[in-house]
Amino acid sequence: MKRIFFLLALMPLASSAQTKFAQLDQELPTPNEYRTAAGAPGHNYYQQKADYKMSIRIDDATQKLTGDETITYTNNSPDKLEYLWLQLDQNIYDQNSDSKLIEVEKMEDFKNIGDVKKKLFYYDGGFKVESVTTTSGQKMKYAINKTMLRIDLEKPLLPNASISFKIKWWYNINDRMAVGGRSGYEYFEKDQNYLYTVAQFFPRMCVYDDVEGWQNKQFLGRGEFTLPFGDYEVSITVPSDHIVGATGELQNGSSVLTAEQRKRFEKAKTSDSPVLIVTQAEAESKEKNKEKGTKTWVFKATNVRDFAFASSRKFIWDAQNVTVNGKNILAMSYYPKEGNPLWERYSTKLVAHTIKTYSKYTVDYPYPVAISVHSKWIGMEYPMICFNGGRPEEDGTYSEETKYGMWGVIIHEVGHNFFPMIINSDERQWTWMDEGLNTFVQYLTEQEWERGYPSRRGPAYMMADYMRGDKKFQSPIMTNSESIFQFGNNAYGKPATALNILRETIMGRELFDYAFKMYCERWKFKHPTPADFFRTMEDASAVDLDWFWRGWFYSTDHVDISLDQVRWFQLNTMNPEVEKPIAETNEKAKDKFIGDERNLTSIKQTVNEADPNIDDFYAKRNIYFVDALDKKEYEEFQKKLSPEDKKLLNANKQIYELTFSNLGGLVMPLIIEVTYADNTTEVIRIPAEIWRQYESKVSKVFILDKEVISFRLDPFLETADTDLDNNSWPARVQPTRYELFKQKQTGENPMQRQKKVDALQGQ
Amino acid sequence: MRKLFFLIFLFCSHFSFSHEFFFSFAEVEYNEMNGRIEVSLTATTHDLDKHLLALDKDFKGLDKVTSDSTGLNFVEKELNRCLVFAIPQENSTLDGSGVIYFHLDGIETALNGTVALYLSAEYRSPLSKLEVTFDLLMDDLPEQQNKLTFIHRGKKSTFVFLPNQRTQLIELTHP
Predict the structure, then answer these.
(1) Residues from chain B contacting residue A472 (CB–CB below 8 Å)
(2) Best residue in A112, A403, A738, A755 to probe B by mutation, most B CBs within 10 Å?
(3) Residue B140: predicted pLDDT
(4) pTM beyond 0.80
């Protein structure tokens, strides 16, 4: 501890280029009449509309889907359009599709016969477009470029004009269990039935907007779908004993449902717990006694960006009502017996909980239904309907991990109704805008489902392992969907963590929740971009977040802030009666050289001890003696002080100078836990702007009332700091994970224990 | 031209999940005072389960293997194939004796879908370089990325392993 004469102010230790706090003007597009500088839709914001009327037929014997559609496309843009672009997503299954060609391969990938079979696996996939015609049947000129189809218009489509045209097509539905994919069929060998989860099944209009023009970036498999809103009327013809769940509301229940099913359906509409519309016994009966005819189910959906459906005679079906701000929504689930007992117990309740919770944090759920369909292994989302994994063992048991896996995937996929189905970002361009935001609200929703829910993504500390280390194989979040290293961590986990840090640490819950909800309200049923999100979050909160977006979204820096040094001072009272005894004590407390110590006894008498004439004034003077002059000077000093100054000088303030280094590059607030000598604690929060001019090293002085025994950075694990070993004073090295594991052990490893069990069983 | 010899494994296709993780992390500490290398390895349970099931159709799953010594031996053997610590010999050539064999000390599955595997090995000879291969799950999941933080004398270094960069040379500094 040192006595100081002056208070220390913030003392910059190093200067550096001011890049981390540079505003984002260079990176963000210039605001305009379509998108404002505040992050809201501009006064001339527009978006196109695409309405579909479709007839779809599934041939259960050949697993072939046939369709025809009439699309009415309305040009709300100020531009005249010479051509129209549509998406042919099924073409990703074409033998020569780019997504197959661009897969990096090497010999090591073919280490077994299964790998070779997989490579040679042939499936005649892709759209077979039979015709593109006007509504009166005249052929229209079109060209197919891989996963995109361009219709060349005879006359440009003018602003505020509409055009209708027809397309006929078919394709072989993919065996999802062999080919993979977001949709397809699963064949159940035991009862010889199919379960279809059908999506990306029709030529769909591309988005045309003020940002990309036509968003016709090829579908390579990662970057999902960018779609305009519109109204759908879809007739789906399937085997007569199938149950169909789809985007939208069923229009012809009286012709496809039995009287009993209709009665149960009506009951479900007012029930706050799931009501079975088709029971397991009824579904199992249909599995065994297949019907031969067909039925056509008709659905209508308003203001949606896509349409998907599921169909099977294996479906058990339940539903319940959930109310959001006075509006009734039907939460429903469709699942085969293989999903039970998990699905009957949880699925629909999870749908209802998700709709309610997301509505609280984003926008009120606007659609009449929300559906979860059981689909082994995958999780995939569409408006009002999603396909979710979570299958128990064949004997009906399931592990806790399976249960939480199913809960998590249902919450996540139902949550996608909000991102991107309603807040309709460009998935082909930016995966994080839907997956990241959705994973963030998923975390909030999981925590409201069960206290201490074991979420895998959300909390800051869970991202540290991914963010640490070499950056050569990391991508900034602001990377196009197709080019991302570590898709899951980058586009799901890191943005969810970033938003969690904004909410808990940077902005606080109130400011964050208001701004986040504002973004959702502004952009519901619209096409937001990253800049709209970044700008709204700042504009609605008055928090300059450019540094945060720059660090977390535009860079691959990580958080590693170290507490390098702590220096301790106390104020000098200038009172000689106080300060001189302290100085004397400090002098006596100094470490002593061993030779001096030994000389005290080995040298019996020195010359000056023997001869009194040796010591002069200097040798005899006691520098710790308080003399009259000391007292007089102190009195004069006291006269110059105000009462407040005197009080401060005598307050025994403890002054600490802490020095921090930014080792990871990502600037973050300094959250410091102070533990005092009396074992009380205090948390001090310093905003990240402390780094604004000195990005690599800063110091800060704290004037405290009590003596401190320790300082610790990031005590609540809220900044994703990748190295906690350099966070404490005095230094405190964290135990390794192995050491923590060993501390829990009983002295024998599981193998040793099992040997004992085996021995007992052998007796 | 070389002839390829195949092992017959189960035909186990790779399926895309909406929530792909494709990441595992190892924290390794070399403590020369007690002559031990201690490893904690975290991975996604269902990915590793599928990988192990493809190798042994009777494998019961990582959550059940803790009470099955045969299963533990199987997991230990496979982990030693996917996480290899080799001591480079003179002239950078390796021989069998230069590979450190890790014992599996325990497995912990977590409800959030991760599994932690704890391994350790005795190593008492002088050590200045390690050639580490960490390609767990890379043959199953093309996007798999593994990271390893190596701790020696309190100093931490993190290394990234990718399907096209499965081995890294770790040089231990002796100040």
Answers:
(1) 160
(2) A738
(3) 86
(4) yes
